[in-house]
Amino acid sequence: MNRQTITFKTQPRIEAVSSICGTKESEGIVGKYAERVLFDDMFGEDTYERAERKMLTTVIEGAIQNGGIGREDVGVLVLGDLLDQIISSSFAARAFDIPFLGVYGACSTMAEALAVSAAFLDGGHFESAVAATGSHFASAERQYRYPLELGCIRPPQAQWTVTGAGAALLTAAGEGIRITDATLGKVVDYGVTDVNNMGAAMAPAAADTLLAHFRETGRSPEDYDLIATGDLGALGSRILKDLTNEKGLDISKNHTDCGEIVYNVIEDEYQGGSGAGCSALVLCSYLYEKMRRRELKRVLFVATGALLSTVSSGQGESIPCIAHAVSLEA
């Protein structure tokens, strides 16, 4: 059987981060950790899609500046988002004279971008890279579900697409948070067809990747201060715990979910947050700061993604999902 886990010999570092979130997101756990809060959902633009692009451009530039380097020192941008043909990423990248790789893993994109960036650095191909992604409630909702003007009632199993973005500057060496391993996920499909029930669709993929990670590294959940999935939401998190328990893996003592904590789930947030910006925002604000202060020393970041589209859903397809895990050490 082929190994899914890459062990990075040089352990690339997350040297700096930048994050931005919407007003609603700022009221939750990330509020005091996010670098910037938007009080205008349009971000001064005339469409939500352009606002999302501007958010991504802002955090990329912010991570570079926070790392104390110039644009010319960045080897590659590894970016992704949810919009058709990842237009937020490619349009944001045209503002930088830096080589660009677009990646797509739906809401798992931040973990994928980190893994790809770390592999380039570990292989000696670049000295630095920026991994980033984001999402906007209004742009994603009207692409995947309904026009906002319809005011459709959301079912109780639904999640709320996060307006937020996060970027991480990775370097081949330094004093930052070390990326030690990455476990690449497989596509898992349990036959869920409800496009509002992302947590149920993605939980089996998260369980599959977690089992592979612990099997191949020889570690146990207790070896991590925190196992942070994202973004299963409240319902998906419960399903994940059931699935892993069935396989003899108890993650209940140190597991949290970015989608579940981003809003401090209360009634009007349904199951919590989702979107490519959800786990990116939580990682590049709350988790990064906790690790920088050494309040968390080892974190397993497991971003999850539902690989559906309006085309596949319209054709009655079920929802294939994926999860990638990245080990972080302070």
Helix and strand element order: EEHEHEHEHEHEEEHEHEHEHEHE
CATH class of the largest domain: Alpha Beta
Whole-angstrom Rg: 18 Å
Q: Percent of residues in helical segments?
A: 25-40%
How many helices?
10
* DSSP strand tally: 14
Unreliable sequence segments: none
> What does the main sheet amount to?
12 strands, mixed
Instruction: List the quaternary state of the chains.
Output: single chain
Please tell me the overall pLDDT: 95
CATH architecture classification of the largest domain: 3-Layer(aba) Sandwich
> How many distinct folded domains?
2
Percent strand equals 15-25%
Q: Find the structural class using helix and strand composition.
A: alpha/beta
User: What's the CATH topology label of the largest domain?
Assistant: Peroxisomal Thiolase, Chain A, domain 1
What general form does the structure show? globular
Could you tell me how far the N terminus lies from the C terminus, measured between alpha carbons in angstroms?
Answer: 31 Å
The CATH superfamily label of the largest domain reads Stage V sporulation protein AD
